[in-house]
Amino acid sequence: QGRLAESGGGSVQAGGSLRLSCDASRDTDCTFDMSWYRQFPGAGRDFVSSIFSGGNTNYADSVKGRFTISQDDAKNTMYLQMNSLKPEDTAMYYCSCAGYGGRVWGQGTQVTVSS
Question: Is 94 in contact with 105 (CB distance < 8 Å)?
């Protein structure tokens, strides 16, 4: 089914930036989309952003204009550039992708934004 591995999380002050990376193993089927989700303590996972096979992107309203999703097909890697971070962006961020075999999830990387 494949494997996804996130990296790049950490602690930053409000207004700062972080770039998350998601490395997909070669056997991971991400035919339909690659996406980022985040989970706040005690809550379910919320959609953050997706990039589709044709290059189109989609963002949650809460991150539009601040976050940018991209991918490097040659490296099987997806990125999430997060600028102007706010304390309410503090969450566990998960990489995910969907293919013919279903949706695959990474283990998550923590992002903490202090005021």
Answer: yes
Cβ neighbours around 12 below 10 Å, total: 17
Q: 104: which 2 tokens?
A: 């695959």
DSSP element (H, E) containing 34 = strand 33-39
Per-residue pLDDT of the chain (115 residues), as tens digits, is 789 999 999 999 999 999 999 999 999 999 999 999 999 989 999 999 999 988 899 999 999 999 999 999 777 899 999 999 999 999 999 999 999 989 999 999 999 999 9
Q: How many CB atoms lie within 10 A of CB 20?
A: 23
Closest CA to 6 of 102, 113, 101, 97: 97
Query: Any residues with CB less than 8 A from the CB of 20 and at least 6 apart, and which?
Result: 6, 7, 8, 9, 36, 79, 80, 82, 93, 95, 109, 111
In total, the chain counts a number of residues equal to 115
And the tokens for 31?
């035919």
